[in-house]
Amino acid sequence: MTASDLFVSVVAPLHNDADIVAAFVDETAAVLRAHYLHYELLLVDDGSTDDTVRAIDALLERHQAVRLIRLSRSFGSEIAISAGLDAAIGDFVAVMLPDSDPPALVPRMVEQSRQGAGVVFGIRTSRRGEPILLRLGAALFYWGCNRVLGLSIPKNSTHFRVLSRQAVNAVVRIRDRNRYLRTLSAYVGYSNQSVEYDTIARRARPRTKSLAEGVKLALSILVANSLQPLYLAVGLGLLVVLGNALFLAYVVAIYVFKRHVAEGWTTQSFMLGAMFGALALLCTVVAAYLARLLGENQDRPLYFVLEERQSAGMPAGAERMNVVTDPVVR
Amino acid sequence: MTAEPFDTVVVGGGFFGATLATHVARGGARTLLLEAGPHLLGRASAINQARVHAGYHYPRSYLTGLRSRVNAPHFIEQYRECIYDAFTHYYAIGRVYSNVSAAQFRRFCERIDAPVAAAPPEVRRLFNPVFIEDVVEVPEFTFDADRLRERVARELGEAGVEVRLGAEALRVSRAGADGIEVQLRSGDAESSVIGRRVFNCTYSRLNRLHAASGLPIVPLKHELTEMALVTPPPELAHAGVTVMCGPFFSMLPFPPRGLHTLSHVRYTPHCSWSDAPGAVGLDGDEQLRRYPRISHFPHMVRDAARYLPLMRDCRAVESLWEVKTVLPRSEVDDSRPILFSRNHGLAGFHCVIGSKVDNAFDMLQYVVDAPEVMEPAR
Q1: In A122, A219, A234, B213, which residue has its Cα 20 to 30 A from A228's Cα atom?
Q2: B271 and chain A: CB distance < 8 Å anywhere?
Q3: 8 Å CB contact between B335 and B206
Q4: pLDDT for B88-145, tens place per residue?
């Protein structure tokens, strides 16, 4: 595929973005037009309540190859991006957030993807402008994910990314309700590469998450993508059960070997220990099966295929002639 | 300059105009058929998907679906030698962005009594299950526009219709008590004929004749469309595929060229304009000549490959360009009614605009055979 044959789609979710959508579309369309013969800019309106759609109508008059998909209400930007990925037809699909991602970078990322990377994702060079607590929280989150939970989320990675057609096809096969493009595109494989970039700000005061929103997002990403917390609970439960067993042995030993034991202490202690031990055991078993259930219940494909190759040689025995000399079937 | 008046003058030698002319001439009327182009059925009658609609295409418009279902067998019987049926037609129902579900589609087919059968597994396997919910096999065919042209020309001759090719109607006006004068241009020569009844069957050019004659404008929407002619992937050489019901594609055999047509709801129309009362839009033929014609085939084939991955192997040969005209109301419910406007601004002047060759019977039955149309206009 030569560069002129490339078809590039750009998917952008919009929510109450009437103030910036024109600037975003003008700039992105100019970049695409300068680099590609075939392209489309797919805007997904995530139930905006302002003039976003009217602004886009004006843009549809002015620009070629812009498509608008309107969702029936606001489903959140992750779902809006999914709707865009479902509809995009490009050989390479770029996903961008209109207020912070620089369109000028798209051709470089597409080129990198064309060299073989299934996903080329952006990493922002700084989190300037965000509240200090959010930045600390983010650092803690990335550390926890990568070190404790074994969940690979590159630090400061953003939604800005280019996916090859193969990667898009894999991502759209996953129909999880709680979706995070960042983890999904890592999950499907196809070699991820990163690109560092400076975010831009189309708004004088960029919309940033509050700390509470950040914590909520972090928790839901963890719960949706990792069973580690449950397995940790299982491990903890087993430790408690073990401790209880030791405690019960201690109670029995006191009863047998000590002469003066307060009346009722043994019964009380034994009962407490036995009950808590049983509870911990029950919780552990439930947690273990819950983890198993969740793992099975994720209706994801078992695997994605990168390619299939075949040996070049002739199959063994191909040189033999298909001739029989003895007509009798033995 | 003008000879004896004709009983009927039909303007426009497409399938509707020619069929209409034959029909009224068989009833004994002295009939003239005017066609601006060099041959009959040269425009939208030939340049379309050639689908003989058997109803499946209109799950959102029960009436259009039902009429197609009723008309198709008549059309096939009457034009047997023009029908191409040496292929299997699969309808695939989209899962994402589709306006109907597979269950709804089957219910609809049941209601209009149109047979569907599940497609065999080896065909289902060709489709991408993420985007396609169901694949069915239906008896729906295409027609060969070249053979249809021969057939229509023969029938015109047998019915005694006078046909003038290269004769463009410029204006119509009242002439005497019960006549209408049609002014013509053939090459550089202008002349005129008189008819007691005149039918305007010029499809996308309908309003141009009205505007030049000071008659009311019919609200119409025009689209400049591109249909790609392709060689299909070998596995689909003897198949037609229609993906329903939304911004999807279809690929059907196009008998005159031995190729398939690939058309796409989103990418076939390149631009559009409208005729509104009092304001005729752009000149479609002028647009066709001037439009840069940058093909949308790369878009069509990429989108198609998402539903049917082997469409990647589909190769473009060339594209056919034509102006397609629809009634604005059809856009809402996807219906395809025939518009018939009787005594349109002028007693005895009627205009007819259809959208599919296969519902010409409805036109003849309900439109032309109405007594007040065939009676001399007063």
Answers
A1: A122
A2: no
A3: no
A4: 999 999 988 888 899 889 989 998 999 999 999 999 999 999 899 999 999 999 999 9
Single-letter residue type at A127: R
From the CA of A89, how many Å to the nearest CA of chain B? 5
Task: Name which of A40, A86, A89 is nearest B96 (Cβ-Cβ).
Answer: A86
Contact between residue A153 and residue A224 where contact means Cβ atoms under 8 Å apart: no
CB A32 within 8 A of CB A106: yes
What is the distance between the alpha carbons of residues A27 and A135, in angstroms, rounded to a whole number?
30
Which DSSP helix (H) or strand (E) runs through A169? Answer: helix A165-173
Please indicate if any CB of chain A lies within 8 Å of the CB of B298: yes
Output the six-digit token pair for B23. 């029909």
B299 neighbourhood in chain A, CB within 8 Å = 7, 38, 40, 89
Residue among B311, B325, B332, B356 at smallest CA distance from B99: B332
The pLDDT tens digits for B34-86 are: 999 999 999 999 999 999 999 999 888 888 888 889 889 999 999 999 999 99
3-state secondary structure A240-298: HHHHHHHHHHHHHHHHHHCCCCCCCHHHHHHHHHHHHHHHHHHHHHHHHHHHHHHHHHC
Contact B299 A7 (CB under 8 A): yes
Which residues in chain A are closer than 8 Å to B298, comparing Cβ atoms?
A: 5, 7, 38
Which of residues 188 through 227 in chain B touch A, CB cutoff 8 A? none
From chain A residues 266-285, the ones with a CB under 8 A of any chain B CB are none
Residue B218 · residue B65 · CB < 8 Å: no
Q: Which residues of A touch B131 (CB under 8 A)?
A: 86
| DSSP one-letter code for B296 | -
Question: What is the spatial distance between Cα B198 and Cα B17, in angstroms, rounded to a whole number?
Answer: 11
Q: Write the DSSP assignment of B127-162 as a string of letters.
A: S-TTTEEEEEEE---EE-HHHHHHHHHHHHHHHT-E
